[in-house]
From TrEMBL:
Annotated Ig-like domain residues: 180-267
Main location: membrane
GO BP field: antigen processing and presentation of peptide antigen via MHC class I; immune response
Protein family per UniProt: Belongs to the MHC class I family.
Annotated source species: Apteryx owenii (Little spotted kiwi)
Taxonomic path: Eukaryota, Metazoa, Chordata, Craniata, Vertebrata
The name this protein goes by in its record: Ig-like domain-containing protein
Length: 354
């Protein structure tokens, strides 16, 4: 399971898109939400509501309100440092921890401005990696303030403690396994065939869909869609590839998922139960907790917006310091990328912004 949280901030909000939003996830399940319109952090699953006392939500509400203000401050810092004024600007962050099958712990923290890397924590070396000269200023400030040490302690201790609690609270839901229904379709045009492999109704979220030609993975030729949630709590995803119509029999779609004892192979026209491939289902991450922050701003050409930082985390809220001039940025789940405004439908439990 994966636990994840992320805030969003807009200087010019619109209906349905509040100025600041913080959403928490566990393995793709939305467990909590805070936004600047309601000014409250609330549970979004029955098992969080049943297992966490009201005092917890009161504390988290206060934390989110504080983070919201820091976010404005840090976004303002970034806009000034990069000499940006009008238009939309974004500030993102994410951090988290994983419990691995071998008993190890994996933790990360990263920040970005306008979808570009800003700072990345090197937990083992107790340093930050700066993406450019502007971020280098923040790197020096953060390291002088001892932030790498605080983050290391948080990611390896507090984060893991809360992850274990969430996994226990939502055990019945998080440990369920629902097999994907897979269908391969084709559309021919001028001798070229577009083959699409779609997997529906699977849980948990993590899935690998690859196109093979004569048994070899065609990674460079494959286009992948986002893994997105269905209304029933399951997910769907797809991958497509172009091929010559005369070579269609050379292609198969391979699907790997925790619900399948082994990867399945599917050909055009097949649906349902897969032919078993000769490889074992991989994956080393047993449980993980991630927190993502996202800040977006549009100052309409004015010089006032805000600075941003941090995020709203389940538990302690992370080792956030007070806002310092020139500080704070964004993390994507392992690979950071800007999410277009209005595209906040889901937050991947592992991988990247989609």
């Amino acid at each position: 399971p994966v636990s994840l949280g992320w805030p969003i901030l807009l200087t010019h909000p619109s209906p349905g898109l509040p100025a600041f939003v913080a959403v928490g996830y566990v393995d793709g399940e939305t467990i909590s939400r805070y936004d600047s319109e309601t000014q409250r952090k609330v549970p979004r699953t029955g098992w969080m509501k049943a297992n966490v006392e009201q005092q917890y939500w009161d504390r988290q509400t206060e934390t989110c309100q504080n983070r919201q203000q820091i976010f404005f401050m840090n976004l303002d810092m970034a806009q000034k440092r990069y000499n940006h004024s009008g238009g939309y600007h974004t500030w993102q962050s994410m951090y988290g921890c994983d419990l691995l099958e071998d008993g190890g712990i994996w933790g990360f923290y990263q920040e970005a401005y306008n979808g570009r890397d800003f700072l990345t924590l090197d937990k083992d070396m107790l340093t930050f990696t700066a993406a450019d000269a502007a971020a280098e200023i923040t790197k020096r400030e953060r390291e002088a303030a001892g932030e790498p040490e605080r983050w290391k302690h948080y990611l390896e201790n507090t984060c893991v403690e809360w992850l274990r609690k969430y996994v226990e609270y939502g055990k019945a839901t998080l440990e369920r396994r629902e097999r994907p229904t897979v269908r391969v379709s084709g559309k021919e045009s001028h001798g070229l065939l577009t083959l699409s492999c779609r997997a529906h109704g699977f849980y948990p979220r993590s899935i690998a869909i690859n196109w093979l030609r004569k048994g070899r993975v065609q990674a460079q030729e494959t286009k992948w869609g986002s893994t997105v949630p269905n209304s029933d709590g399951t997910y769907h995803a797809w991958a497509s590839i172009e091929a010559f119509a005369t070579e269609k029999d050379e292609y198969q779609c391979r699907v790997e998922h925790a619900s399948l004892p082994e990867p399945g192979l599917f050909s055009w026209g097949e649906r349902g139960r897969p032919e078993v491939a000769e490889c074992r289902l991989g994956g080393s991450s047993v449980a993980g907790t991630h927190c993502r922050s996202f800040l977006a701003a549009h100052d309409g050409g004015s010089s006032s917006s805000g600075t941003g930082k941090g995020s709203c985390w389940e538990g302690s809220g992370g080792p956030w310091p007070s806002a310092l001039p020139g500080q704070h940025p964004v993390r994507d789940c392992r690979t950071l990328r800007l999410v277009p405004l209005g595209a906040f439908a889901h937050c991947p439990g592992s991988g990247r912004w989609d």
